[in-house]
Amino acid sequence: MSSRAHKIIEEFFTLPESEQAEVLQAIVPKGDDDEMDPALVEELARRVRSIQDGTAVLHDHEDVRRDFMKILKR
């Protein structure tokens, strides 16, 4: 990930939770009615909170990609 992307993510986490939800609503694909499913918004907010409070288990992109490729080769 580029340094620019890292800066954007860091800035995102400094926003109040309500503004984080607004950003997520703006960038996550929407359904036919242009409204995000409220359950999806809540799940995204929950995941953001878990990252912020340190309870999320995060995995390096390259490790995930490598493991995924191993599964595909089976």
How would you describe what is shown here?
The chain has 74 residues and is mainly alpha-helical. It has one domain (3-72). The chain is 68% helix and 0% strand. The protein has 4 helices and no strands.
Tell me briefly what this model is.
By secondary structure, the protein is an all-alpha fold.
Shape: globular
Domains (count): 1
Structural classification: mainly alpha
Q: Name the helix and strand elements from N-terminus to C-terminus, one letter apiece.
A: HHHH
N-to-C terminal Cα separation, in Å?
A: 29 Å
Question: What would you report as the Rg, rounded to the nearest angstrom?
Answer: 15 Å
Q: How is the biggest beta sheet arranged? A: none
| Count of distinct strands | 0
Oligomer: single chain
Give the helix tally: 4
Average pLDDT confidence is 83
Q: Provide the β-strand percentage band.
A: under 5%
Give unreliable regions as ranges.
Answer: none
The residue fraction in helices comes out at 55-70%
